[in-house]
Amino acid sequence: MAGLRRLVGLDLALAYAETHPERVSELVLRGIFLLRKEEIQWFYQEGSSWIFPDAWQDYLAHIPAAERGDLLHAYYKRLTSSDPAVRIAAAKVWSVWEGRTSCLIPNAELIARTAGDEFALAFARIESHYFVNDGWLTNGRELLAPANIDKIRKIPGVIVQGRYDVVCPAKSAWDLHTVWPEADLKIVPDAGHAASEPGIVHELVSATDRFRA
User: Fold this and answer.
1) How, if at all, do strands 184-188 and 157-162 pair?
2) What angle do CA 131, 152, 136 make, to 5 degrees?
3) Tens-digit pLDDT profile for the chain (213 aa)?
4) What residues contact 32, with CB distance under 8 A and at least 6 apart?
5) CATH code at 20?
């Protein structure tokens, strides 16, 4: 899934570190997503749609007007349908929406990969399943709770964030850094969300090289 955000992975990494800090030596986090309702609303209901209205049109058109008040659950219903054709159709639209919005400069290769049947079905079903269940967190807030942040405060950390990331907007990285100022926040000025973008790659490699030393 290179190039796309690993929402579940990021949340699990942070949740795991807060649960088992003694087992974590360092944290390198990229494209911060805390599973808060406003973050899900931003990308799947309204927000990013204002920046990518052309890509949003295709995402929105797949759902009948009567169900557009809750696009997440409308897609989840289709992604868990007993009809394979319904599942794959919804998955491809869901996945391509993210592929089209993940890079500062559109990446045709990435978009084509997100349209692949196998990739799209796995990606869309995993993401949506976590989202409709709030990631089994309390609206994501517990990830930022002082008691939990205190558990990772002494763990060296780097937060890498693209300035123009519309999938996981910089506010989430900023909110995490605000409560965890001990971590280094690296805002890449010429990047969107994708881990493959040059500035993001540079900061991720720099962080891992630093910790390796």
Assistant:
1) parallel
2) 20
3) 333 333 446 778 899 999 999 999 999 999 999 999 999 999 999 999 999 999 999 999 999 999 999 999 999 999 999 999 999 999 999 999 999 999 999 999 999 999 999 999 999 999 999 999 988 887 667 899 999 999 999 999 999 999 999 999 999 999 999 999 999 999 999 999 999 999 999 999 999 999 998
4) 10, 159, 161, 168, 172, 173, 175, 176
5) 3.40.50.1820
Count CB atoms within 10 A of the CB of residue 81. Answer: 14
**Is position 53 within any domain?**
yes
> Based on the structure, what is the number of domains in the chain?
1
pTM for the predicted model, two decimal places? 0.91
**Do residues 30 and 168 touch, judged by C-beta distance below 8 A?**
no
How many residues are recorded in the chain? 213
